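Final report, section 2: Outcomes. Of the targets proposed, DUF559 domain-containing protein is the one most frequently requested by collaborating groups, and we therefore present its record in full.
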Amino acid sequence: MLTISSGLPRWEVNQYIDRARIASLAQSRDPRIVFVGTSSLCVQGVPLWSANHDITFWCPQPYPNSTLPSVRYSGFTIPPVKVRKLRRPPLTDHRLTENGVQVEDKLDAALRLAMGSQHFEAFIAMCMMLHTESNFSLQRIGDSRKRENNLREELTRRLSVAQENGWKYGISTAKLIVKNADAGCDNPAEAAMLYAIRSIYSGPVLTQFEINGSTGRYFIDFTLPEKDIAIEFDGMSKLGSTNEDLYHEKQRWIRREQDLRDCGWNVIRYSWEQLKNLPRLQIDLAQRLDLLEAIPTTSSQLWDKGYID
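The predicted structure is given below as tokens.
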């Protein structure tokens, strides 16, 4: 019996349901089953852009696909999901068991997505895997970056081994995603913002760039040093939960933005509502950056190599 506390936001309920579905399948099926891709990352607590993914696993013997029913909770319905066996085994033998569920490790799971066709979701998953696995911390940012670089080297090594062993599909795209993903993204929304930036701008992009201004020490979400541009994402959690919180946050933003401008940065802000319309945000950002290239508008065009190499 799954017990979910009342009053939880929908995204958190979705996470509970995702994990409960996987745990139920793990108990009822062959112990040789290895949950892979989004299912593996979900079990291991890596935040993803969306929820209610199909449950994916690999095992050496044939298994029929199936469907799990919808779940009704507190006035809304979580849709049914498919349960699918994938033909591609894990890249390595690095497997672990989380709460009785056998999964491929986070690196293999993120690479599996990066070699697939959903580049936007894969990029965000890669950023969040790097963030969690590097134990990224602003208080120890130097050490965090070293761990991130070590992870990136291991990811690249695994892709090279896969290529040597005859894997072809998705390798080049996965290498691009590994190269451009960044552990400095604190949540999936910031990773989506980085995706939008990297899809249209080929110059250096730095995350969590430290600036010591006259009124404090700041870590800017994204900086484009060659253009002296700071891009700040105003996520929902930054707004506060009361009118008083919102007022104080706005005052803090004003002081921070003025300080950044005094330090020579041009500040661009984007909100959660703007991020939800990615093509429009992308075009707006391109205009602000005064880019002359044609701007793609679909996810497949976003990752044209000409824009991110």
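The longest strand covers residues 216-224.
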